[in-house]
Design goal:
heterodimer; A: mainly alpha; B: mainly alpha
Chain lengths: 121, 235
């Protein structure tokens, strides 16, 4: 459990280091996500040499634990809305229109393109 | 009596414990409400929790910085959670590789739609350039969106709020919208949710179906990558 948590943090740490070091605009945790996949692929290659925690499903379980309450993690940033209520109220129409129309369009276009191409395969 | 209550409040208001506890327990309550309402999209746990905690912060006159002192411990976990999205991605890697073509096309189409559609609408409705710049990156995960907004001359804190609002909106409308469009492919639904509504859409997709959640996580990561690459070219 602790090793798994440490390894997840390590992926993020290396990801942040790469992001800062190279100046790419990709966030460190997203690079960490890729590293996490590479870590699991590497585990499969080395087989029995991998630490027990990586082989007995503990790592996967730890990740699922963090992900099971993904919604909770957005609340602290979301409460920041209290700081910008005046700006939101002052620009209610453009903000509401842009966010609503653009989100509906993005959802519809993405899902439609995906399923249209997937059906042809 | 009143003095001791006040002294207690002064103590609690300064320690991170109070707002950390409030945030977690409010979320637990809202999760219960959401489950009791059969995961009705309108009873979105993030939306409900934000409203309740935000109202408490406002009513007690607590500065947001003080609230965040406690809540930062939860906020911090966003990073590890993003890394952990690699686990379902790894587990479903064969399904994902098989869908590489629809994913690539949907990513390009959706990412451009999200970027290009918001700006003219905001301008048409009379928003100032600062507001427009703050709205443009709203579909991208908060950390990237704030960086983009700053470069465009927007207000990063406002962008963070708009990112969250977009996420909630996307999470609320994705299910009814997919039913209306008759899109039944769980992979397509999830991918759209993650692309248009980042982590909050991903959380919603995991509520609906684990496979949808996996594709949502991929879409969120890829959209952050693509937007970071595309925006400097578009500007």
């Amino acid at each position: 459990m602790l090793l798994s948590l440490g390894l997840i943090l390590l992926c993020q740490l290396i990801g942040e280091a790469i992001a800062r070091g190279t100046g790419v605009a990709v966030p460190g945790p997203v690079i960490g996500l890729v590293l996490c996949v590479l870590l699991l692929l590497a585990r499969d290659r080395i087989g029995r040499w991998a630490p027990a925690e990586l082989r007995d499903g503990t790592f996967e379980q730890t990740g699922r634990g963090i992900l099971s309450h993904l919604s909770l993690l957005f609340i602290p940033a979301g409460v920041g809305v209290v700081q910008r209520l005046d700006v939101l109220a002052g620009n209610a129409l453009p903000i509401a229109a842009a966010v609503l129309v653009s989100t509906v369009l993005a959802l519809a276009v993405t899902a439609w393109v995906f399923s249209a191409i997937a059906r042809r395969l | 009596m009143n003095d001791s209550v006040f002294a207690l409040w002064v103590y609690l208001a300064r320690s991170p414990l109070l707002w950390l506890t409030v945030t977690i327990l409010t979320y637990c309550l809202c999760e219960r409400i959401s489950t009791a309402l059969h995961r009705n999209p309108l009873a979105n746990p993030v939306l409900l929790s934000m409203a309740i905690v935000g109202a408490l912060v406002r009513l007690t006159g607590t500065p947001y910085a003080t609230y965040f002192d406690g809540a930062q411990f939860i906020h911090f976990l966003l990073g590890p959670a993003t890394v952990a999205l690699g686990i379902p991605l790894y587990q479903n890697r064969r399904l994902v590789l098989r869908a590489i073509l629809p994913m690539t096309c949907a990513l390009l189409a959706g990412s451009l739609t999200a970027l290009v559609s918001a700006v003219p609408i905001a301008r048409l409705c009379g928003a100032s350039p600062m507001i427009v710049a703050s709205i443009a990156p709203k579909s991208v995960t908060a950390a990237v969106a704030m960086g983009i907004s700053e470069r465009l001359g927007g207000d990063p804190a406002l962008t963070a709020v708009l990112v969250i609002l977009t996420g909630i909106l996307g999470a609320v409308i994705v299910t009814p919208l997919m039913i209306a469009l008759r899109i039944t492919d769980k992979r397509a639904q999830g991918f759209a949710a993650g692309l248009a509504a980042h982590g909050i859409g991903t959380a919603r997709a995991f509520q609906v179906d684990p496979l949808a959640g996996t594709f949502a996580g991929i879409a969120m990561g890829l959209n952050a990558l693509l937007t970071a690459v595309l925006l400097p070219l578009l500007l």
